[in-house]
Write a structure and sequence with these properties.
The chain has about 725 residues and is α+β, with helices and mostly antiparallel strands. It folds into four domains: about 170 residues, no CATH class; about 100 residues, no CATH class; about 200 residues, no CATH class; about 180 residues, no CATH class. About 50% of the residues lie in helices and about 10% in strands. It has 22 helices and twelve strands. The strands form four sheets. It has a four-stranded antiparallel β-sheet with strand order 2-1-6-5. A four-stranded mixed β-sheet has the order 7-10-9-8, sandwiched between helices. The radius of gyration is 33 Å and the shape is elongated. It starts with a helix and ends in a 9-residue tail after the last helix. The C terminus is likely disordered.
Length: about 725
């Protein structure tokens, strides 16, 4: 539709404006009937032809031999009504265009820089006349204009209106922004102050733009949502204003001296006519004949650069990956031979596919969770979540959409018919040894950075179109572009060969699961605890460690995991989190207001039998970063000076020694308490840790979890 309907209409409107504008004075003198005739020919006749060719029109049949009645029946035919309505619409549109020429085109043609006004204001005005004419036609056709046709025109009109607004706003800002910032009545201090505000906002935007789902804390009395929108508006307005200024400064330095206009242009208190004339004189200094060749050259340079530069490496992704590999994988590399200047060792990283028993690996099977972004999906089930789970294991990498399984065959056939799935497979799991690279597949470091790519333009349920534009512009991108596992051709590619198209998709939030390449980001953009993939695999025993920043103990990550498991998989997780909620008074809070819970963990039940009668039940152990008051003295001391501990913002990536050790020791204490059990009765008050039991040694996994279920029952002793 965009290619065959909207684009030709837009070009036709632009050509009509380009013809009317230089002839505005002559056309304004033409009598009204010429405008009526012109509108009928240019718009009415094409609409009438379309009406005759339109399918599913119900003609009124009259078998009477009376000639008059047959003529009346023919006139009453819906197709005839459409033809008449189209001709009347064309005539009215001609009169509307005459009014636009008389009231707008003629006066603006006398302004300085008339051609630039045509570009920014004339074309949108012609487009609005066309939209008004189409509305008139729909009204005139009345009840014979069936619902499907209304929906079709509504969709076409929507896109034309969007393009009109984008064209008008974008071109107007580019053309008139220098007039605003260099206006004589605008004081120099205001100009400098606006620049300082924009730069300050740009520096602190990463913190301000972090959403609530991203676990940023909201200070008391501060509406972060409103603050984010204000910051967003300042950023977009600043870009729209200052980029044209840079362009105009460049043009002024190139052409201003020759035209003797540079002195006039830079004088802040010059007379208004000279100031406006100088602005458009500088714009007119660019020969319009060279605009198209220059645009083509710039486009070719962009394509060549996007071919030479890997989109995944020309971002923060590679920097972040190198440091994660050096910090965690390099720490266990006993025979490191680091580069004496940069520090990394190529032997620090290893292939993800090698972490399997056939390769000599004897550890647990790692499942690294990523999110496949679906910001531009047609599936209504993903309009809020905007992502789906993308697990990476030593065996397989890929995804599946469980909510679509019942309609998988129908959806796949529809994609084939629409031409969206020429090389698309129904399923989307590929061998890790070849996914992303035919010679070994993903490296572990690559999977790690995908799983931890929290900041990016497309971030699952955190995705917002306007911040995506800004983050792409400033290259604040941690996400990763990989071959689509569903695509039979690109799934072995390490990334897009020409990244410009993918960068534009990232810029405008057009990521989906049918394209040749998919955009992967942090697993928390879909589900942060990693429970979802374990429940899909029917794991009987799950231990989830929640170390996310949750100062209000809202259990957002847990609630999100339980909700998605129920909606997508049909499995209910029964869990009582009451012992993990701090009390505002009594023994669970001291005089300084420190939050303390009665337990660090709770044990629940996974009801696999809800979807499979023979599936049985599983045991779900949930650990929460919390304090009960019996932690080591140094941990409690650290909280004294840092009241948000252990829920400090995850945006803090530079841990001090005391901070790191406090979190490490608290984690050790939580696990020790989990396996040691508890000692308390209904009258003893808060629970205390019991001594570790020797009977845990030698237990099987099933016996161990059954023991935990007995130690941490659902019914918790109440406080005295």
């Amino acid at each position: 539709m965009l290619l065959t309907v909207v684009a030709p209409f837009s070009v036709a409107l632009w050509v009509l404006t380009a013809w009317l504008w230089p002839n505005a004075f002559i056309c304004d003198l033409m009598p009204g009937y010429w405008w009526l005739l012109g509108g009928m020919v240019l718009l009415g006749v094409p609409l009438a032809i379309g009406s005759l060719l339109a399918p599913h029109q119900q003609a009124v049949s009259d078998k009477s031999r009376n000639l008059l009645r047959q003529m009346l029946a023919w006139l009453h035919n819906p197709k005839m009504g459409w033809v008449l309505a189209s001709l009347v619409t064309g005539a009215v549109s001609g009169l509307l265009m005459k009014a636009a020429v008389h009231k707008a085109f003629v006066p603006m043609s006398a302004w300085y820089g008339a051609d630039w006004h045509e570009l920014s204001l004339g074309v949108p005005l012609t487009s609005l006349v066309f939209l008004a004419a189409v509305t008139i036609q729909i009204v005139l056709t009345g009840r014979t204009f069936y619902g499907p046709y209304r929906e079709w025109w509504a969709r076409v009109g929507r896109w034309i209106l969007i393009l009109t607004i984008v064209w008008a706003v974008g071109s107007s800002l580019a053309i008139y922004a220098p007039l605003l910032l260099f206006a004589p009545w605008l004081l120099p201090s205001s100009k400098v102050g606006s620049l300082v505000v924009w730069l300050f906002n740009s520096l602190f935007k990463p913190y301000i733009m972090k959403s609530k789902n991203g676990k940023s804390s909201e200070p008391a009395g501060v509406n972060l949502r409103l603050l984010r929108w204000i910051s967003l508006g300042i950023s977009i307005l600043g870009l729209a204003l200052y980029l044209p200024i840079v362009l105009e400064l460049s043009l002024a330095s190139l052409y201003g001296a020759n035209m003797k206009m540079n002195e006039v242009w830079i004088q802040p208190f010059a007379e208004s006519p000279n100031w406006v004339f100088a602005h458009f004189a500088i714009l007119n200094s660019v020969n319009s004949v060279w605009l198209i060749p220059i645009f083509i050259v710039i486009l070719l340079v962009c394509l060549q650069l996007s071919y030479r530069v890997n989109l995944n490496e020309f971002s923060m992704n590679l920097m972040y990956r190198n440091r994660l590999v050096r910090c965690y994988l390099g720490a266990t590399h006993q025979e490191r031979d680091p580069n004496s200047i940069s520090g990394p060792d190529s032997g620090d990283d290893l292939l993800l596919s090698t972490l399997r028993s056939s390769q000599g690996y004897s550890g647990p099977l790692p499942i690294l969770n990523g999110s496949l972004n679906l910001v531009s999906t047609r599936d209504l089930a993903y309009q809020v979540r905007k992502a789906e789970s993308f697990p990476m294991t030593p065996l397989r990498c890929g995804f599946d959409t469980l909510t679509e399984q019942s309609n998988l065959e129908r959806n796949y056939a529809l994609e084939k018919i629409m031409g969206h799935a020429a090389s698309i497979s129904k399923y989307a799991y590929r061998p890790t040894a070849k996914y992303g690279n035919e010679n070994g597949g993903f490296y572990l470091g690559t999977a790690m950075i995908i799983s931890g790519a929290a900041a990016g333009p497309n971030a699952g349920y955190d995705s917002v179109s306007s911040p995506a534009l800004l983050m792409t512009f400033f290259n604040l991108r941690l996400g990763f572009w990989a071959g689509n596992p569903r695509n039979n051709i690109t799934w072995t590619h390490p990334g897009p060969k020409v990244g410009l198209a993918q960068l534009l998709r990232e810029l405008f939030g057009l990521t989906n699961d049918n394209a040749k390449y998919v955009y992967l980001s942090d697993g928390s953009h879909f589900e942060n605890l990693g429970v979802y993939e374990l429940v899909k695999r029917r794991c009987k025993f799950i231990l989830a460690c929640d170390a996310g920043a949750d100062p209000e103990y809202a259990f957002d990550d847990l609630g999100n995991a339980i909700r998605k498991c129920r909606e997508d998989i049909g499995v209910e997780i029964e869990l009582d989190t009451t012992p993990l909620i701090p009390k505002s008074s009594g023994t669970n809070s001291d005089k300084s207001g420190k939050k303390q819970t009665t337990q660090h963990c709770v044990v629940g039940t996974i009801h696999y039998d809800m979807v499979d009668p023979e599936g049985g039940k599983g045991i779900f152990v949930y650990l929460k970063a919390s304090l009960t008051g019996d932690e080591p003295a140094d941990v409690l001391n650290y909280q004294t000076g840092h009241t948000t501990f252990p829920h400090q913002s995850t945006a803090d990536q530079s841990f001090t020694e005391s901070q790191f050790e406090s979190y490490r020791r608290l984690g050790q204490h939580v696990v020790e308490t989990l396996f040691a059990g508890r000692e308390a009765t209904a009258h003893e008050g808060p629970l205390i840790s019991a001594r570790a039991s020797d009977k845990l040694h030698g237990l099987s996994t099933a016996e161990l979890f059954e023991d935990l279920k007995e130690k941490w029952p659902k019914n918790v002793p109440k406080e005295a």
